Amino acid sequence: MFAWIELTPSCNLRCVHCYVNYDFEANDGRTQIRFNPFVPELIDNLAKVGCRMVQFIGGEPLLLKTKLEEYIKLAKSKNMEVEVYSNLTLLDKNENLVNFFKEYGVYYIATSFYSYDENTHDRITQKPGSFRKTLEAIRKVLSKGIDVRVGIVIIKNLNDQHIKETIRFLQKLGIKKTSIRVDNIREVGTEKTCEVENSCLPGKACFSYNGYVFPCIFFRNIISGKYPEDSFDKIMKKSQEILGAEDVF
């Protein structure tokens, strides 16, 4: 089984294609970072049903550095592989966190990268300097021997003419070709995204920061339940019914 766990809806970027309206600042301008309080319980329950890998996502999971370290330690203690999906802009100067990832055997650090061209990348993230921060973080992670997985989202009239050159740029950094994925913008939560019968869905579940559980991070219009209002066992049973599988996990 593979599980996504959203740690927070907060993010420090404002990517033009983001599938959720993530918050970061309160109305008065002060930093406001919300988080999922049930992560330790979810990790325990996922371990009991044989979950082999968990991906911590957000928002931006590095906004919760201390909690992220706690969750990684817990997941590894349950013999799970761990992947962290981050925009990496908070990692470029954080040597201690990179060393932590190495020490605890984080399986992959995954990120999004939009163009070899700095201006194009930053236009998409709507955060000046994000290209340089992400690039520096990628180099730092690779220097520790940790694999980096990269997703390039094709955005019409922004980076759609940069894809081949961006792939070459990433490979020159040392990222494996097999670790680079190119994807179109997905219409999240619609039947145009995928079908319930999609063969990639069994064995996966997404636990959102506010407790809702979906078959997939993109398939958010079908809900298996809400934790902890619904028991973990009830949610897993509902997932089986939705996917029409005898054994989802």
Care to describe what's here?
Helices cover 31% and strands 16% of the residues. It has helices spanning 39-48, 65-77, 95-103, 118-125, 130-143, 163-173, 232-243; strands at residues 2-6, 53-57, 81-85, 108-112, 148-154, 180-184, 204-207, 212-214, 225-226. Strand 5, helix 6 and strand 6 form a beta-alpha-beta unit. It has two domains: 1-85 and 188-249, no CATH class; 86-91 and 102-185, Aldolase class I (TIM Barrel), CATH 3.20.20. It has 249 residues and is of the alpha/beta class. A nine-stranded mixed sheet has the order 6-5-4-3-2-1-7-8-9.
Q: What attributes characterize this protein structure?
A:
alpha/beta, 249 residues, 31% helix, TIM Barrel, 2 domains, nine-stranded mixed sheet
The mean pLDDT is 88
Structural class: alpha/beta
How does the overall form come out from the CA principal axes? globular
Radius of gyration: 18 Å
Q: Count the domains.
A: 2
Oligomeric grouping of the chains: single chain
Distance between the termini: 5 Å
Major sheet: 9 strands, mixed
Strand content: 15-25%
SSE succession: EHEHEHEHHEHEEEEH
> What are the low-pLDDT stretches, counting only 5+ consecutive residues below 50?
188-193
Q: What's the number of extended β-strand segments?
A: 9
Count of individual helical segments: 7
Largest sheet: spatial strand order? 6-5-4-3-2-1-7-8-9
Helix percentage: 25-40%
